[in-house]
Amino acid sequence: MTIPPSTRPVYLKGPKGKGEAELWVRVGNSTRHLEVADAVQYVAMRWPETVRVSPLTRIRLFLTMTRHRETPTRLPRVVERTLTERIFSERARNGSLGAGEE
Question: From the first residue on, what is the mean pLDDT of each consecutive set of 10 residues in the chain (102 residues)?
């Protein structure tokens, strides 16, 4: 039997729909559970259209992260890096990088 890949992430819950949602992926001939940071990165790479955030929200997140960089409770590095990379890549595509920005 051949089953095509899903067009969006599918999260599973425990028996009778109780428990936290979990993301499981097929790797070769096995199925593996992804931890939260890995699941965020996997979904962002596999289904980028499902994790789209408005440009205004991305800018707000970026500014919040830069203001609170030293705060102990912060987003996982993979989420922070993904948001930062997307903001700068969109700016580069739109030609809105100013002097001194990379």
Answer: 83 83 86 86 80 75 73 63 75 63 48
